[in-house]
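Hi R.,

As promised on Friday, here is the backbone we talked about, encoded as structure tokens. Could you run it through your design pipeline when you get a chance and send me back a sequence?
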């Protein structure tokens, strides 16, 4: 802080510089809060042309929108939408893809829950733990169904592979 308090051009320059410094400090405070996941700090715009303040405000609004969506997804609510702002919106695009993926897995799980196990499903890649588990479950249920079909025909020559000591269905049919 400069200690100069005259009513001249230099005094006006000092006052303007101090105002600008406070505004920059407020903007830094807002940016730090956003970087740490706190979207509650509101930036006070210097004017309607405060491009930095407006950009941080828009960024904060977008992050609030995305965090609200993430909260819904975390409790299994996939009935929500997000719109990518552009082809460069990597976070928006990733969330759109994640929602599509979760909806596809949910659709297969719902079909299985209704007793339909002749569903088609493909894992999206070697890192797709949920998808790979879904494929294993489908394969297992198909094996159990085949075993049950053999039993209904009094054919006890086929055995099911028991997956673990916790495989109650496999043990019962095996």
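Update: got your reply. Pasting your designed sequence below so it's all in one thread:
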């Amino acid at each position: 802080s400069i200690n100069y308090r005259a009513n001249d051009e230099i005094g006006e320059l000092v006052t303007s510089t101090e105002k600008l410094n406070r505004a920059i400090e407020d903007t830094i405070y807002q940016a730090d809060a956003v970087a740490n996941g706190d979207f509650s700090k509101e930036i006070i715009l210097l004017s309607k042309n405060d491009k930095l303040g407006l950009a941080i405000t828009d960024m904060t609004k977008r992050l609030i929108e995305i965090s609200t969506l993430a909260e819904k997804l975390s409790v299994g609510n996939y009935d929500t939408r997000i719109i990518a702002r552009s082809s460069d919106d990597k976070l928006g695009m990733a969330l759109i893809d994640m929602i599509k993926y979760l909806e596809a897995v949910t659709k297969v799980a719902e079909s299985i829950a209704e007793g339909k196990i002749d569903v088609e499903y493909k894992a999206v890649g070697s890192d797709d733990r949920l998808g790979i588990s879904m494929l294993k479950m489908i394969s297992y249920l198909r094996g159990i169904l085949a075993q049950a079909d053999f039993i209904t025909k009094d054919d006890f020559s086929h055995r099911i592979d028991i997956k673990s000591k916790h495989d109650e269905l496999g043990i019962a049919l095996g």
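One thing I noticed while checking it: Residues 161 and 167 are 10 Å apart (CA to CA).

Thanks again,
M.
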